[in-house]
Design goal:
The chain is of the alpha/beta class and 269 residues long. The chain contains 13 helices and 10 strands. The radius of gyration is 18 Å and the shape is globular. It starts with 5 loop residues before the first strand and ends in a 6-residue tail after the last strand. The structure holds D-glutamic acid.
Length: 269
């Protein structure tokens, strides 16, 4: 039995899509979440900067003596994790492997779309892993840099989001994909808009949900927090304004997180 927490981080709100799924799949686990809201977005930064931020985020979560760290950020998982995974003496999982595993099982016509931040798409990591499963798979990539600011500002379901989604997704839809990987953990917050545009025949893969299923297998039975209230089990840290994170985070997680969020200075780590 291991009562240590699961550490999870992202550049901002997006990683909460993974946290929500981890809470559902593993309701007895305790979670420490860090959202780097002071430095979001990661996806438009250089690889060196993404590496620096990712290392700092891991060092911060390690101060809590967590048992595993989940990089709930497609950008850090693809542009940094392959380079740094051996630098830390603890298990670190990203979101790419689990999403690819789900996508190659879901597709019937072997045409998979991948949307993500510029950093994720530039890394080529999704395409590399998908074609390693089956070289006949066709992968259609598209970077969607404006989706992250829309999410961070709460534009989940509105006209401007629909217009931008149509612009980004037009070619992928025209290519006839039957599976679309939401390769950035912010994007499930836009699932309704993306799903409506792509149509019923396209399976959307939520990378946060897939990593939660993976964790359930990996950590099965490895906890004992069942009776404690939310405030004891779930703690959130951000590197910028606490109140906007509390507001949007509570709506999204469908549970009150007011009073459980603290601000930290991530530059110290
Ligand atoms: N949610 C992150 C991702 O999955 C990061 C988005 C960003 O900061 O650009 O890529």
């Amino acid at each position: 039995m291991n009562n240590k927490s699961i550490g999870v981080f992202d550049s901002g709100l997006g990683g909460l899509t993974a946290v929500k799924e981890i809470m559902n799949e593993l309701p007895n686990e305790s979670i420490i979440y860090f959202g780097d809201t002071g430095r979001v977005p990661y996806g438009t930064r250089s690889r060196d900067t993404i590496l620096k931020y990712t290392r700092g985020d891991i060092r911060f979560l390690k101060t809590f003596d967590v048992k595993i760290i989940v990089i709930a950020c497609g950008t850090a998982s693809s542009a940094a994790l392959p380079m740094i995974k051996d630098e830390f003496d603890m298990p670190i999982v990203g979101v790419i492997d689990a999403a690819v595993y789900a996508a190659v099982r879901a597709t019937k016509n072997k045409k998979i779309g991948v949307i993500g931040t510029p950093g994720t798409i530039k890394s080529g990591e999704y395409e590399k892993q998908i074609t390693a499963y089956d070289p006949e798979m066709r992968v259609y990539n598209r970077a969607c840099p404006m989706f992250v600011p829309l999410v961070e500002n709460g534009y989940f379901d509105c006209e401007v989001t629909r217009l931008i989604a149509a612009e980004y997704l037009e070619e992928i839809r025209a290519a006839g994909v039957d599976t679309l990987i939401l390769g950035c953990t912010h994007y499930p917050l836009l699932e309704k808009v993306i799903g409506e545009y792509m149509g019923d025949g396209v399976t959307l893969i939520n990378s946060g949900a897939e990593v939660a299923k993976y964790l359930k297998k990996k950590l099965h039975g490895d906890t004992a927090h069942s009776a404690s209230p939310d405030a004891d089990r779930y703690r959130y840290y951000v590197s910028d304004d606490v109140s906007s994170f509390e507001e949007l985070g509570s709506i999204f997680l469908e549970r009150e997180i007011n009073g459980q969020v603290s601000k930290i200075d991530i530059e110290k780590y």
